[in-house]
Amino acid sequence: MTTLTVVTAVREVAVVSSAVHQVEALTFTTDVQLMVPLINEARGAVGLTQADIGFTCSGSSDFLAGQGFSFVQTLDAVGAFPPISESHVEMDGAFALYEAWVKLQVGEVDTALVYSYGKSSPGSRRDVLAVQLDPYTVAPLWPDAHAVAALQTRLLLESGAVSSEGLAEIAVRSQHHAVGNPNALRASAEATVAGVMAEPVVADPLRPSDIAAEADGGCVVVLAAGDRARSLSDRPAWIRGIDHRIDAHALGVRDLTRAPSAALAAARAGAGDDRLDIVELHGPTTSQEHILASELGLDADTLMNPSGGALAADTLMAAGLVRIAEAARRISSGDADRALAHATSGPCLQQNLVCVMEGE
Amino acid sequence: MTDTPIPAEASDGVGVVLPPSIRDVEPVRSVRTPIRLEYDFIPSAAAQQYLRAYGEKRILGNRSPVDGAVFVPPRGVDPRHGVVADEMVDLADIGHVGSFCVTHLPIPGRRDLPVPYVSAWIHLDGADIGFLGLVAGCANEDVRIGMRVRAVWKPDGELGDTAENVLHWEPTGEPDVPIAEAGNRAWGAKQAAAADDDADGGDSGA
């Protein structure tokens, strides 16, 4: 047995505000026009302007925007004048939040603005995702994202870990929970396992309901440390643990039915130290959500994906940050005391971030 | 793909020993994996309005709701303040050269353009930032910061929803804008003047 060191935060940091917008396609809206109202909403909810923000960090992808350094243009939405302290990750916004959390731990700043966005509708998302694979031997073959996820799902089904009906149950639960979520694209109180099983396969064995609903959108989160957080929010969602782990990139060297990096990140974030009221998982397919739930060792009392999760609306580069926003919102509203939010990046759950939050 | 083979022992700088089976094989020096992704972008509402008006020989800008600065082309936001700026302003097709450069390389697809040519930041009357245009109709040596210019539009039958409706900008012959008030300095000069007005007993509540 390996002894795990749970990373202890030296400084209390909390989510004090968030804003989310996800739709099927932002046809006439630029990334900047999407983010201006969202950023103002999240900052404004806690009475902050950009002048009050110590550090700004964003996540997005040039492969979605179709142009280099696209994030620089999106800084127009922040109001980055006079010049601000700013950074960017070519990853989901959850990883930008991690960078901002580190900056807050260092003690240089007391507040941080984190945002991410993705507008995949102008291109072919399933093909764009192929370019994240090994550039020498895999990407030139252009395996689309559904096919790669289907390979993983087939292995999972063949291992006996779950049945097709078991995956359909995950899809149905997501559609039920998403009812009432204004940012969900796929929600239905009437969804049934039989209905999902009757759907024609997209990439055998994946059916449409097994694959996350593709969304365009964005998410903004405001972080604050210590008493600053208490002054901004009646009930901040305190980040008690956050960790980011990575499995091998090459699909062939991994057991695709497992995600050891997710289990490790959860352990190091202290997920198992106490009960979890809710969990928001970033599983782009039902099979990946199943793998994550197994790796995290969730018990039956935990409410899974009350927002519907990423299956209900998956905005590339933002779906992970949305999970943190959704979990934090439920803590701040008093609906939950302890929550886990998860974000993934890379093919087949290669990278995993776990963020454990608590109310006070 | 390859050029002169390099000895195996020199093929890396970290002391990796290649297996005997590929020790004498010509090393792969590069791999070509062309990537092509297609996107179908639709211009934003602000860009669409701008392009449609431009096809009718009108130039639109956006006015900032914060301090009244006018941006051209309009993007629907004030990037300095991170706020929506959806008020459209009709701008004159006349202005001055804010800055310029003389370029000695041809523009692909513009064989009609003699080299060297002058590209410039054109500051339209009523706008507070410049936008790119060509200056012609005078000797390159005569182009200067502050020179007044007007648009030379394409013939009506060739206008369209594109950014290419102005062929170039030509001198008007009017007196120059003083250098201290030209180009990006114009906005600073305008703000300084507004501040003076305030100091002279204007509304101090702003």
| Count of structural domains of chain A | 2
What's the alpha carbon Rg of chain A, rounded to whole Å? 19 Å
Q: Specify Rg of chain B, calculated over alpha carbons.
A: 26 Å
Which structural category do the helix and sheet elements of chain A fall into? Answer: alpha/beta
**CA-based shape of chain A:** globular
Give a verbal description of the structure.
The complex is a heterodimer of chains A (360) and B (206). Chain A folds into 2 domains: 13-124 and 214-232, 3-Layer(aba) Sandwich (Peroxisomal Thiolase, Chain A, domain 1), CATH 3.40.47.10; 145-204 and 239-358, Peroxisomal Thiolase, Chain A, domain 1 (3-Layer(aba) Sandwich). Helices cover 33% and strands 20% of the residues of chain A. Chain A contains 13 helices and 11 strands. Chain A has helices at residues 31-45, 62-65, 70-74, 93-106, 125-128, 145-158, 164-177, 193-197, 226-232, 260-268, 286-296, 309-312, 319-332, and strands at 13-23, 55-59, 86-89, 111-118, 214-225, 237-246, 278-280, 303-304, 314-315, 338-345, 351-358. In chain A, a hairpin with a 5-residue loop joins strand 10 (338-345) and strand 11. In chain A, helix 4 (93-106) crosses helix 13 (319-332). The model of chain A has no long low-confidence stretch (mean pLDDT 95). By secondary structure, chain B is an alpha+beta fold. Chain B has one domain (45-196). In chain B, 12% of the residues lie in helices and 25% in strands. Chain B is built from 2 helices and 10 strands. Chain B has helices spanning 45-54, 185-199, and strands at 59-63, 70-71, 77-78, 83-84, 87-91, 94-103, 117-124, 131-135, 148-153, 166-171. In chain B, strands 8-7-6-9-10 form a 5-stranded antiparallel sheet, with no helix packed on it. Chain B has a 3-stranded antiparallel sheet with strand order 2-1-5. The longest helix of chain B has 15 residues, at 185-199. Residues 202-206 of chain B have low confidence and may be disordered. The interface between A and B is medium-sized, with 30 and 23 residues.
